[in-house]
């Protein structure tokens, strides 16, 4: 069975879905799509530290979601990554 690939919005590399984080805009709020099945505009991002550190500087999410992304969203993503790495 083929493993679905998705492109990281930061480094543009194709990777298996399970190696990426999916962010979704729902009702003008950005959330992490843990099950990767929510409806709405989604953006895929690598769990690599290099991509996470470039995320805010590149304003990639601002362009993808066509809105200003608050610092709380970046903090939420960093906390999720930190939690994943400790497991």
Task: Give an overview of the whole structure.
- The protein has 87 residues and is an alpha+beta fold.
- It has one domain: YlxR-like (Hypothetical Cytosolic Protein, Chain: A, 2-Layer Sandwich), CATH 3.30.1230.
- It is built from 3 helices and 5 strands; from the N terminus they run βββββααα.
- It has helices spanning 49-58, 60-65, 71-86; strands at residues 5-7, 14-16, 20-26, 29-32, 41-46.
- It has a 3-stranded antiparallel beta sheet. Strands 1-2 form a two-stranded antiparallel sheet.
- 18% of the residues are buried.
Task: Provide a compact summary of the structure.
This protein is an alpha+beta fold and 87 residues long.
End-to-end separation? 27 Å
CATH secondary-structure class: Alpha Beta
- Beta-strand portion reads 25-35%
Give the number of domains: 1
Provide the structure class: alpha+beta
The major β-sheet equals:
3 strands, antiparallel
At the fourth level of CATH, the homologous superfamily is: YlxR-like
Encode the helix/strand succession as letters: EEEEEHHH
- Could you say what the CATH topology is called? Hypothetical Cytosolic Protein, Chain: A
Helix content: 25-40%
Number of helices in the DSSP assignment: 3
């Amino acid at each position: 069975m083929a493993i679905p690939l998705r492109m990281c919005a930061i480094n543009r590399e194709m990777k298996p879905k399970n190696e990426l984080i999916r962010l979704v805009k729902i009702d003008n709020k950005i959330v992490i799509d843990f099950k990767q099945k929510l409806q709405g505009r989604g953006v895929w991002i690598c769990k690599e530290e290099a991509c996470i550190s470039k995320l805010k500087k590149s304003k990639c999410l601002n362009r993808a979601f066509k809105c200003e992304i608050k610092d709380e969203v970046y903090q939420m993503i960093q906390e999720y990554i930190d939690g994943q790495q400790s497991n």
